[in-house]
Records
---
Amino acid sequence: ANSLLSRYSEFNTELIDINRLREGRSIRKFTKMQGTGNDYVYFNCIDNPIVNPEGLAVRLSDRHLGVGADGIILICDSQKADVRMRMFNADGSEGKMCGNGIRCVAKYCYDNAIVNKKEMTIETKSGVKKIKIATQNGMAKSITVDMGKAELSPAKVPVKLAGDSIISKKCKIGDKEYDITCVSMGNPHCVVFMPHVENIDIEHIGPQFEESPLFPEGVNVEFVKIVDRHTLKMRVWERGSGETWACGTGACAVAVAAVLNGHCDKNKDVTVKLLGGDLKIRYTDEGVFMTGDAVKVYDGEVEV
């Protein structure tokens, strides 16, 4: 019973080489950062890699027994870009992309002189992303990320439905029918437009979407209220983390879905309001561009 409650599983438990046992715990420095309220614990792994990030994500993400975060992000060396980021959810699963996290990686690298330029590239599991940094008093303040093109093909989202794209399609999730629009922004997203999002039982509905057999790799689901043609309000349930204050790739998916459903206009800035703040998204033929903040909360040390 204790094992089941521990949140550890076969994919986030470290395998130990008994011939190379550590003599004791090591001290790792970290930085807590947040973008639009989406908080992660960041480790500089360029010269000092972490052996078991999956298990460390489970331990440190706990808001009562750990540091408290939506997950951890590793900043690593790259052969394709200025740096590489790896992101692990609170359950230890590795994500392909994190829109709020990549902005904080850019700020960390610029403020700590790891990358000495205002335009940089960051490698992710969903490809290399281009970053532009606006500074204030010599520190990164506002960051724009070229998130690449939105993927609408069901096989690439992935979602087990037929057609060239899934736009406002009625599907049964749990015991209720929803109009869903599916978009991949490096991570799979399912967008549901609703009259109100304030009072939905996201703790009950979110897992029904995440665990639906329609989504073989799970899914992030966004519940969205249309305020006007330039403003959207959303709540998000992220696979592996539950409800979070913000999701950068989710905000991009929501803006794309709003344009595809005729609620917003292409090539125009759309403000997406999240629990943690606002993001500006622009959906164009060239790609999806996201602009938002990146904030350092504090530095710390942890025994691992």
---
Amino acid sequence: SPPHPLTPPLSSLYPALLLLLGCFLILPHGDFRQVEAVPRFWMGIAVMSLGFAGSWSIASIQPLWFWGITILTRLLLLPMYPGNDIWRYLWEGLIQTIGFNPYQMAPNAAELIPYRTAWWSQINHPDVTAIYPPIAQLGFRGLAAIDPTVLLFKAAFVSADLMICWLLSRRFGDRKTLLYAWNPLIIYAFAGGAHYDSWFLLPLVAAWFAVDRPPSSKKGDWLKSALLTGISVAIKWISLPILGFLVWRSFRKPITLAPLVLICGLLPLTLSVIPFCQGGECPLIPTESTFVSHGRSAEWIPYLVQLIWEPSKQANWIYAIPLGLVGLGLLWKTRSFLMFAESYLCALLMLSPIIQAWYFTWIIPFAVASRNLGTRLVSLSAFVYFALPYRQAMGNPDWHLTLSERLWLWLPFVLGSLWTWRYSANTRSPLSKNSSSLD
């Protein structure tokens, strides 16, 4: 007889309890400005990581337990002190409700001094104008108009996160979706750290499912996927090459499809940018910012390059060249949304000069299908990143990982991904499972 829904097997009970215990342990230690916060945070993350690793061996799980733990872990972390990105979200939403344009005025603008809040001093890079795309800005504005509080913003990010869980579980089942739903990096990034990346991932996952479906996609599916990808682009710029992939593949369809795919993909950005354009100018990216031009944080390939070519540290734009070449190669070789998106995002992470721990959440939904070992391992090793705020709390302003820290963070991802890709090349590819060709 089937097990009672209230009596889960031990294989799912122990991982669930460890995840919950880990959440309790990290809850009081989200303010990394305190010297003792990061070591205690790491202790709780270690417990959560044991629970997550234990979930890899779960053979089956009842929906009640899957959703119960998925929701409860996130609810537990809602009161946690957030990461410092949240203060910029709140600020840029708030000043929009007053009538100011965040793309034209940096937080330290003299005109905005009368509106500074109690948390204003925690905004990072206060001399830089907004970098988040227009739909994200409109989302910040909508939330700030209701109540400019951390809790409301967190609830919005977690809501999108849970919708991603729902989409993945519908497509791949609860057991496989544990890789996302019970992932400590996902749980912390959205519910604890209050990072908004779940907003752009939700339409991207929906776009993936709209077009990667057997036996073939219809015209309406292509347009729906392009529109959803366009929404993702207008929330976070990194989705733009994925839109390019859809346009490229649509050229193999009837001649009228590619222009329609392009129009649908660009429509969300085109419409959402209108409120921010003034005097014929739409300054969406602060290219004059030193953070954009040569900022560095926990990078991998750019770090290796600067070891042999020191001047590369002053020119982040050069990494757009190898990324573009990788993108062209993927356009030529890949045929499914899943294969392109996951491969491109992995390349982006390895080539990016600026890496934050929560950036690795971008590839986790796709690993539910690919079962990429590297993604599973980096979901744990990414927490090495928090050595950076730990050193700052101790009075050391150096924002660079040591070589050993960098190896601990990156090698699990690189070696695990290589193992998965090699296995895929020699057997039936996990990357192609549950996804279809777009031809």
---
Amino acid sequence: KDVWYPYVFIAADEAKLQDRRRKFKGCRPTGQDGKTEPCWLVHAAELRKGDRVYISPARFDFEFLDTTARRFEVSYHDGKRRAPAKRNRPYLLDDLDRFQTLWKQIAGEKGLPTSQLKALDGLIEAKRESWRQGTGNEEDKEYDKVFARFVCDALKTAGWKRKPEDFETLYQAALTGELHDVVELYMEILKRRPEQERQQTKEDAS
């Protein structure tokens, strides 16, 4: 019954909306470098079967502002961050569930301590950057094969106490760079610590 907020962009001209009481004309973002185009909005309660609407998925991004200039790094091109190291951002809001699962896998009771997590993350990302710069080719298939083997070996020697299916999830996350984002979000921004360290702190305090 909310008469103000639940309006949606609809793919229809004014002539087809004559019998819709709650409507108004606005500008719809096209998703191309901030460009917009005229478009009608109709109240959700007045949508009908067969209507075509524009939906903009909810996304989230994050950046640890350790300096005031860091905010200028949050810029986009074609809907993605400009910085190659943060190419996966922004994420869909639904990806937060996967982030939470990954965090539990890497920092839960069977996860790694802070020092090992940061060392592993730093090793993978340093190799990603140096090898990619060395090839100078974003589509280098041979690089992809070598890097994939490196990531797999790095994870296997890290001492994970995970199930095989969990390892595959970690491997894919590390390969795409998502693991790096999870580590940054939870450890650098949210200041979370692995479960085994939290438990040790509790035991020391008692």
